[in-house]
Each structure stands twice: as C-alpha cells, then as structure tokens.
From TrEMBL:
GO terms for biological process: methylation. This is Partial demethylmenaquinone methyltransferase / 2-methoxy-6-polyprenyl-1,4-benzoquinol methylase. Residues 74-168 form the Methyltransferase type domain. Keywords: Methyltransferase, Signal, Transferase.
Amino acid sequence: QNPFRRRSRSRCGGWQPAVVALLLLCPASFGICQPALFDSAPLASAYERMSAAQYEIGTKLVALLRVGPGASVLDLGCGTGRLASYVCRITGPKGKVFGLDPSPYRIAIAERRARRGLSFAVGGSGDLSALPSRSFDVVYLNYVLHWIDDRRRALQEIHRILKPGGKLGISFEDTSRPSDLDELIEQSAKEVVGRIPPKLFLSTAPLGLTELEEMLQKSGFRVLRLKKVESIDRARSPEELLAFWRASSAGRFLSGVSEETRCRIGRRIQERLAAQTDREIRIVSDTLLLVAERGAAD
C-alpha cells in the first residue's frame, strides 16, 4: 500500500493517504553555470535520457536480491522510475512495487510508468516513519545511500519496515578505487581556487564498505552477499559529461562553491577532457552490490 499517495495521480486503488511531498525542491535551470542544489524538470528529463549505466547496475542488484513474483518492494530513491518498472514486471500481478524519491520532477516522469502494482510518491528517507512496520519483502537503494545524511537512522527505519527475513539491497561506488575522473575534477578545482572545496563531489560524504557493514550490523542486518561489478558511463563530449553529472546529482554537482567559481571549474574540466580525447569519454569505476537480511526472529 502507498501511504504517500497523491490522490489526483495515483492509479492504484485502496491506498491509505498520509504524508506527502517532503523535500520539495525549487526549480533550477539546466547547465553547469546555473544555481546548484535544486532539481528541475530539465534536469530530471536529462537524467531519464542519460542514466542507462545506473539502470543496468540496478538490474544486477535486483538479480542479486533474487526478487520474485508476488514480492512487496520499496525502491528508495527511485528517480524517474525506470528500475521500479522493471521490478514490477518481475513481481507480477500479485506483487507491489512502491517508488519513493524526494524530487517531484523525477516522480512526475516516474508516474507515467505507474500501473497496477506500481506506484510512486514524493518523499525521502526521512519519511519512512509513515510506512507500516513489517510491510516489505525487499527494500533497495540503487546509488542512493551516499545522498542520505543520517544513514544510521535510515537503515534503522528500513529494518523496521522490512518483514522478518526481508532483504535490503544497496549499490554504491567502491571508494577503494576512485575513478580517474575524480582526480581530474579535484585537480581542476585546485587549479582554479587553489584547494578542493567542500562538497565538491556528488555525495554528502564518501561511503566505505567497512563503515557500511558496521552500520548494517548495528541496525540489525546480516550481510548475505557482496559482489563487485564494473560500471561504465559514456559521454560523447565534455559538455555531455558535465550535463550528466549535474543531472545525476539533481543539481548538486560543485554545489560547495559560488556560481562564478562553479563556472570556472566547469570550464577547466571541459578543457582538460577535450585535451585528453577526441572520441567517446568512458568513465570506468567499480560498484559494490550488497545484500543484507533482517533476521527472521527480529
């Protein structure tokens, strides 16, 4: 059931309405020199077009979770709903898939995919208290956990809403092997401002495997499976790559600096990328897929 339902848009009957639309984000124009921190309709549309790599990783996470027909699934940080729609095809007519994302612009796109057994709402990890305990077989976060400030609380809430024996799936970048482009961004920032500004990268803070495993254990989870896969993002030009970073971060890329400095760093990144290649840009990184379980006796 979907307690976050917006009555005018839901296509699933019988849901109980409750909390809606926390973390509503103000519109921002699309472009590296535009105000950061806020999502917009153009950014959401750009992410829908450019997020193939994240989707592919998500399908691998779902496979590792062994989602089956009839399952009740929460996609936390569902974005534009593409992966949730894929999962709905697996869970079938007796299953339920609920997608939750803090961006109303991404949910607006996701709702075009809504159908029986698949619904979406605006909300984030801070809204999970509105969901009943022991209501999901599976909860997954595909490239999402690094966005969450209070991760311990989020994991505790996920533990609460999972049924005993329920599974949690998380995909996240392997911080032990940063991509070459991370270094390029840092060097570009240093050349422009002489230092690495705070909140330069996309996430609130890096997420290491050891730290995550400790948090999971303290939240009552047991890690079942861990798999490393290679992720490749592609861009045809430096401009397209910067557009992807901005879209995938909902406007947060280079959010720790002023607009003028953000423009200068963006231009320097473009110059360095253009000097390195005249063909397709490939961003290769390692992604960790983790599956944990809530104890059956909890």
